[in-house]
Amino acid sequence: MQIQVNNTLMNVKVLFSESDIRERIKQLSEQINLDYGTENTLVILIVLHGALIFASDLVRNLAMPTEIETVRIKSYEGTTSSGNINLVTPLPKDLVGKHVLVIEDIVDTGRSINFLLNELKKSNTKSIKVCSLLDKPEAHEYPLKADYIGFQIAKNFVIGYGLDLDGKYRNLPYVADLIKA
């Protein structure tokens, strides 16, 4: 498949198929179920918009009661991080004493998740963990690692399964790398 990006033709190379993702989500949810059990409520904090598809598939495989909340952070313009992090929506107010699982689409430089975790620490939660569909260790600028990682990828720009390019291609059922044609 090819797509047009700013007057440049790009090839789309599938990195993780729909079935790859489904199987990995099953494994991640089994681990989360083991770690949290079925008794305590888990607050799922979905980082919009990128993690929405991943989170909805993951949550349906969790055994414990869940509360679902969302937050929106903006740090990308086109294919590059702007370096500025904006909290577009406020954090949920009542997180005191609760277990929180942040669902992220990708840990790239780590700036966004580092920013979000620092904000969440002010909420007096019982625990905070991060589950990310993708991790780009080569791009990390902060010494942090998600607690649950779907897949590690190289330092490339990817689209699909919630990840976008200027708001487009989130609906692709797979994760794909963009390569100049």
From TrEMBL:
- List, alphabetically, the Gene3D superfamilies matched: 3.40.50.2020
Instruction: Determine if Transferase is one of this entry's keywords.
Output: yes
Q: Which catalysed reactions does the entry list for this protein?
A: IMP + diphosphate = hypoxanthine + 5-phospho-alpha-D-ribose 1-diphosphate; GMP + diphosphate = guanine + 5-phospho-alpha-D-ribose 1-diphosphate
Enzyme class, UniProt record, top EC level: transferase
- SUPFAM superfamilies xref list: PRTase-like
| Molecular function as annotated in GO | guanine phosphoribosyltransferase activity; hypoxanthine phosphoribosyltransferase activity; magnesium ion binding; nucleotide binding
* Cofactor dependency: Mg(2+)
> Which InterPro entries does the annotation name?
HGPRT, Hxn_phspho_trans, PRTase-like, PRTase_dom
Q: Which domain of life is it from?
A: Bacteria
What is its subcellular localisation? Answer: Cytoplasm
Might you give the EC number(s) for this enzyme?
A: 2.4.2.8
For this chain's UniProt record, which GO biological process terms are given? GMP salvage; guanine salvage; hypoxanthine metabolic process; IMP salvage; purine ribonucleoside salvage
Domain Phosphoribosyltransferase intervals: 23-164
UniProt pathway: Purine metabolism; IMP biosynthesis via salvage pathway; IMP from hypoxanthine: step 1/1
Q: Which UniProt keywords apply?
A: Cytoplasm, Glycosyltransferase, Magnesium, Metal-binding, Nucleotide-binding, Purine salvage, Transferase
Chief subcellular location equals cytoplasm
Which first-to-last residue range defines the signal peptide? none
One Pfam assignment:
Pribosyltran
A single GO cellular-component term from the record reads: cytosol
Record NCBIfam families: HGPRTase
Q: Which family does it belong to?
A: Belongs to the purine/pyrimidine phosphoribosyltransferase family.
The protein's name is Hypoxanthine phosphoribosyltransferase
List the top taxonomic levels of the source.
Answer: Bacteria, Pseudomonadati, Bdellovibrionota, Oligoflexia, Silvanigrellales
